[in-house]
Each structure stands twice: as structure tokens, then as C-alpha cells.
Design a protein that fits this description.
The complex is a heterodimer.
Chain A: H1 7-16, H2 23-40, H3 75-79, E1 85-86, E2 89-90
Antiparallel strand pairs in A: 1-2
Chain B: H1 8-17, H2 22-40, E1 43-46, H3 48-64, E2 75-79, H4 106-113, E3 117-122, H5 156-163, E4 169-173, H6 180-186, E5 189-192, E6 213-217, H7 220-230, H8 248-251, E7 260-264, H9 274-289, E8 293-297, H10 305-320, H11 339-350, H12 353-366, H13 372-392, E9 398-402, H14 418-422, H15 429-433, E10 438-445, E11 451-458, H16 463-476
Parallel strand pairs in B: 2-3, 2-4, 7-8, 7-9
Antiparallel strand pairs in B: 1-3, 4-6, 5-6, 5-10, 9-11, 10-11
Helix pairs in contact in B: 2-3, 7-16, 10-12, 10-13
Chain lengths: ~100, ~500
Amino acid sequence: MSPRISREEVEHVARLARLALSEEEKAGMGEELSSILAYIDQLRELDTSDVEPTSHAIPMVNVMREDEVRPSYPVDAMLQNAPEREGDLVRVPKIIEE
Amino acid sequence: MEPSTLTIHEARRKLRAGELGAEALIRSYLARIDAINPKLGAYLTVTRDSALARAQAVDRRIAKGEPLGPLEGIPLAIKDVICTKGVPTSCGSKILTGFIPPYDATVILRLQAAGAVILGKTNMDEFAMGSSTENSAFFPTRNPWDLDRVPGGSSGGSAAAVAGDLCAGALGTDTGGSIRQPAALSGVVGLKPTYGRVSRYGLVAFASSLDQIGPLTKDVRDAALLLEAIAGHDPLDSTSADRPIPDYQAVLGEGIEGLRIGVPEEYFVEGMDREVEDAVTEAIRVLEKLGARVERVSLPHTKYAVATYYLIAPAEASSNLARYDGVKYGLRAPGGKDLIQVYGRTRAGGFGPEVKRRIMLGTYALSAGYYEAYYGKAQRVRTLIKRDFETAFGKVDLIVTPTSPSAAFRLGEKTADPLEMYLSDIFTISANLAALPAISIPCGFTPRGLPIGLQLIGRALDEATLLRGAHAYEQATDWHRRRPPLAGTGT
């Protein structure tokens, strides 16, 4: 049957999802995810061993085009939404540890 | 008669006949928005100045006898998940605070090319995740038929704006029912086109294999008009269908004599409100009287649709929403000492509870050790659901069901239990999983005066038959002519 989502699992998944959840949120999330997964568990009734997965219900094909230089949006317009910028760059805190 | 009550096709005729000016039409809506939007909460942004300027330009074109677009001068509202150049686009979320798109979505360019005037951006559940518009980070939208009740969601702002005569028509988006369910709860027409019929370029992604843009309107003819304007292949969306767009308006009058309509037994089971069941049963009798051949069909995997959806949609969402990291646009939480901390704090502070829940659920379903058991399983069940429809559409041309198991519920009624909220999409989700077009049209009212919606589902890319069936029913009834008692609220 559906596993109860432990606190460690909540913390692990939150880390993967880059969500710095509060202690209160972690507690609630474990409960809610467990209850949703218990409902989802009914899918196990179905034997799908011979069924192909569907990622898109309409058949999809790769769309190719010539690799030609085309005008793009101006750099300045695209950077206007950045919370912090420096010249033509987006500024962020340091990434590499010292 | 107030111009704001007109349908798109009526306003179009009056504009062309010189009986109504485009500016007068816009001013009628702006006055109504000023009076009623504070109570309704349908709009997040009203683009007053650009709408007036645009309407004045339309009046000049008409005066000069210049050729007019099919939607020339028609005032429309746009769900705030669709990018509009120079106009804030929030997705109902705090995480996009301050975001102003540098480009227009393809649907916006197409509406403008057809002559439409954008009145503003409408409220929604954050990132289109919800069924009541209570998950908006700003304020809830209220149902024009009863201000203590929700308009449905996630396109609740668009539905309420159409129902309350705060626009002539609107665009919404539908990932699991987010056009049709609010249309049903607010008493308007809502059409989800076939996946790929309408370009998603410039639509902020929630679940990319399910999302589709479509119209919310006062009648079926208006839905056909708007679909015609926005549908069609777009090189900027590789999933958009490269198929011709029929003349949808031309098929409306054809009637439904001999059309085969299927009633799936799985949609008439426990959990549905009696008044909804009665209204839908009566609607099926009307379709039969109009000459349709009604027969039973079976969609045996219906009961698994919600569970399937709540794996696939959150999985895709968890990937799509990874881009909100405080770097390129929107909110950035202060004080992060390194980039990882900036990500975590920005996302924890910027997303609301339902969005976090779905990101967690999706990340879990995709994580190592669970991928095949959850996401992989859901994709296989999706195949079974799709096959159900293929079998049914071998026998019938349309499928008829209720849109939602109940009429509009009260604000706060379903917010405590996420699963209960999810189940309000139980009848709409399958069409998204199978990529099929579906429409909700008004089919009655509860004794308290709340609207009830009838859903028709069609074959892939066959919106023409869908609109024909919906129009025949609509013209034989007068539910769509009723207006909410809002009129006395200040105009």
C-alpha cells in the first residue's frame, strides 16, 4: 500500500525541488502528500504491463528548420525583468565555494 | 439596452451598422468594471488607456470605410497566464511580481490582427492550479450569480468577467477543466479546443502535454468566432497542429438531425448532485428531440482519470516551474548567501501552498525509485483512457456528460482538503488526458438560481461538430439568455 511520506522524504523532495519549506509546512506537506498518494494508489488495480505509455495524446514529430541566423529579442528588453543586472549580465550571489 | 450586455456577434453587427461606436462600447465596459469589479475581483489589471486609444482608432477606421477585421472593436479579457507585451502578467502568483513580458503570446497577436481590443487581464488560481480561483495570490474572484460562492477555476476571473458583462468575451486556459468548470459554475460557454489546435506560444506553461487556450463567451456563436480567430498552426509552437481551420460559423446552423450522441454510464454515478443529474438528463432529452440518436457508451477507465491527472500534471508542472528561481525575472528573496539559498528562499516565499504541494507531488513522482511506479504508471493509464474514447467514437459523433458534479460551492468550502477540490474536475480531466475538444454550455439552474453546465466532447480536431451540437441545444433553450442579478449592484 501507499507509503506514508516521512519527514525525511519531505525534506529530500523539498531539496530536489529547491523549496526552503518552513517546519510547519514540512509537517503539513507529509500529511497532504500521503493522503493524495493514497487516492492515487487505486491505479495499482490496473494491469498495465502490456500498455504503452502516452506522453502526448496527439502523435508528435520532431520539427526541424534550417539553422539560419534570425533577429531575436533585444538583450536589453530581455534583461529588463532581471531582479539584479550588471551591464548585459544577470547578477547572482557567488556559486563556487572558496 | 446597455452595450456591455451584447454578445460578440451582436456588438459586431451594431458596430458595422453604425448603431454603436467602438469607444462607446469600451466606455460601457469600463464603467461597469469600475462599478462591479471591486465586488467581483474578476480583473487583476485593466488596460484602460490602451483600450480607449485602440477603440478610437477603430472608430476612425469605420468612419473612413476601411476594411475591418472579424473582431474589430470587440472588447476582450485575457487570463493572466497569457503573455501581453508591456502589460504585467502574474499567473496569479507573487513569484512573478513586477514581471512585464517583452513579447505577446501568439493568441494575443492573432486577436489584435482580427481587430479585438484587450480590456485587461483576469484573475486565476496561481499558475492555473485550482478549481475555485481561491488560490490566487491576490484575492479570490466571486461568482456573479451569488457573491458568497466561487466562480470555479482556474479561469474564474475570465468566467466571472463574461457572466457579469465585464467584457464581451474572454480567453482562458484548460489543463484539467479550467475553462469548462468555471464556465459551468458561472453560467457561460467555455470551449477547450483539441490539444494543438491553438498555439501555446506565450502561454506560461503549467502541464505542457495538457494545456490549451480557449474562449469563454456568452453564447456558442461567439465561441466559434473567437476560436476561428485564435486557432491555427504556429511555427513558434512545435505542438500546434498544421491542419486547416474550418469555417466554424458556417456549420452552426446545420442542426443535429441524425447525429449520434453517446451517454457514458460512468459519468452518472454516485457523488453527483441530484439537480445536476436532472438538468443533464433533461438536456439529453432535448438533444434527442432535435433529431440526435442518443445511445449508451462506456468509458470504463473514467474513475482513474483524476489519479492519472494528479501524477502527470504535477510532474510536468514541477519541471516547468523550475524556471522561477529568482534569477531572470520576478521575485528574488533577499539575503541568500549563495545561489542555492536564493533559489530555495525565493521559491518558498513566492509560491503559494497549492503550487508548492503540486511541485512536491510532481518531484516525488519523478524522483529516483518512484518514477516507474507513479509517473510511468500514469502514462500507461493515460493510454487506456485515450483508447476508451477511440472505441466510443467508433460508435458516436459526440459524447454528452455533466461538466461538474455540483453547482458553484461556497468560498472556503473546499479549501481545507486538496483532494476534495481535485474531485470537482472529475468530469473534465479525461478530455485533457485524451487531447480531445470539449465544450461546456448552460443547461439549467438549481432551485437557488445557480447555473448548471452540460459538457459535450468531440473527436480530435472536430470542433466543428462540437460547436454544431452545442449551438443546436443552445438555440432550443434559453438558459444562455439569463443574466445574473448583478445589474442592481451599481450601474
